[in-house]
Amino acid sequence: MVVRKVGRYEIGRTIGEGTFAKVKFAQNTETGESVAMKVLDRSTIIKHKMVDQIKREISIMKLVRHPFVVRLHEVLASRSKIYIILEFITGGELFDKIVRHGRLSETESRRYFQQLIDGVDYCHSKRVYHRDLKPENLLLDSQGNLKISDFGLSALPSEGVSLLHTTCGTPNYVAPEVLSHKGYDGAVADIWSCGVILYVLMAGYLPFDEIDLTTLYSKIDKADFSCPSWFPVGAKSLIHRILDPNPDSRIRIEEIRSDEWFKKSYVPVRPVEDEDVNLDDVYAIFDDPEDQQPSEPSGNSDMGPLILNAFDLIILSQGLNLSALFDRGQENAEHQTRFVSRKPAKVVLSSMEVVAQSMGFKTHIRNYKMRVEGLSGNKNSHFSVMLEIYEVAPSFFMVDIQKASGDAVDYLKFYKNFCGKLEDIIWKPPISTTKTRSKTSRR
Fold first, then answer.
1. Architecture of domain 94-263
2. Which of 132, 190, 244, 400 does the annotation list as catalytic?
3. CATH 3.30.310.80 domain position(s) in the chain
4. What angle in degrees, to the nearest 10, is found between the helix axes of 408-420 and 345-358?
């Protein structure tokens, strides 16, 4: 049998598979250490304009070296593949443990929560905000210690930027201010998610979990929940201070650490010694100019947003007037409308899902298509909309929105309200100064 090797790693079985990557079990031949090797196809990443997103995720994981965060060991590359070498975690997701056992004991819940707070606080000290904390993204190692994973939606804002604006995350765990579309503090929003996780650990179910999404978001906005009778007084008090709908008065991490219930049996973990984080290997992987041309399409349409060619653009824009892509009048929008975004396609899709659900609609997603459905404005007829993300140019994505069923007036109201809540991701073309001057000169 031929043993495949990459650098010092022997590659074994596939242990996971996603849209853009396979995860393989591998072993370091020098140390014998088991690792998880995430294998990405270089041409696919370039073709789908995901270079910046992958760079950011890798850079963030290199920054946050902490015992309760999944460790990134190194990044390797061949001419056709990128290999991300990660810590191999054997205990599965915390979510699976809750599903198997139901609610956990007070002691076990507190221990996981203490580890979560330690890991999240360290991320925040590096100005990294996770934005998708939930039991599915918390792994358990062989000793039963918690490991924060999946930084795909995390933010690393520039110096001087204090508020984030992109709506993303999983609705049941998202803080109310994230849904308000007015800007939010990433650290304070992460604390809310930690509070929801603590509640789930101790109760075995969610504090906010309504079938009707309008009711769900209303309850999140008001923090309308109650603790089960078996919650100890200390835990109940702490959860109410965390799930405070007002981000300004919500408890901060240093206050959580001072809480009497939290402090019981708490042994602060010692972070990995600060080390210089060198990102040269990350940039070198993507910066070879010979590799910047994408390969021919493989025929697999499930890999990302469809790429529009010139003929597609002409058909979609009703002739050669390409301005129709960006600014369609109401008379043309009765059944179909579009907008353009410069955000990554994954962020666009996540933002649209959260906004649609916050408006009280159900969503169904497959690849980069989303169906939105629910009751019309007068609540007496069914209403549904289809949305699809297309790539029109590097870093430019068009969202095509079509009414599938329901009244045209209801559709226009939906479109206006929906886009109003997505202003932070919608790109607006700059006003042409030449055009403005020519108008002025004609007066």
1. Orthogonal Bundle (1.10)
2. 132
3. 301-420
4. 120
Q: What is the CATH number of domain 5-88?
A: 3.30.200.20
Mean pLDDT of 429-434: 57
> Could you tell me the pLDDT band of residue 285, with boundaries at 50, 70 and 90?
low
181 and 226 Cβ atoms separated by less than 8 Å: no
Q: Of 7, 5, 46, 33, whose CA–CA distance to 391 is shortest? A: 46
Q: Is 132 a catalytic residue?
A: yes
CB contact set of 43 (below 8 Å; sequence gap of 6+): 80, 291, 294, 295
Quote the pLDDT of residue 19: 65
* Intervals of CATH 1.10.510.10 along the chain: 94-263
Model pTM? 0.67
The CATH class for the domain spanning 301-420 reads alpha beta
Task: Identify the pLDDT of residue 338.
Answer: 86
DSSP character for 207?
A: S
Residues 248 and 237: their CA atoms lie apart, in Å, by 18
**Please, are residues 418 and 363 in contact by the beta-carbon 8 Å criterion?**
no
The residue written with tokens 């939930």 in the block is 134
Condensed to tens digits (0 to 9), the pLDDT of residues 320-347 reads 344 444 444 444 444 558 888 988 888 8
Number of Cβ within a 10 Å radius of residue 426: 17
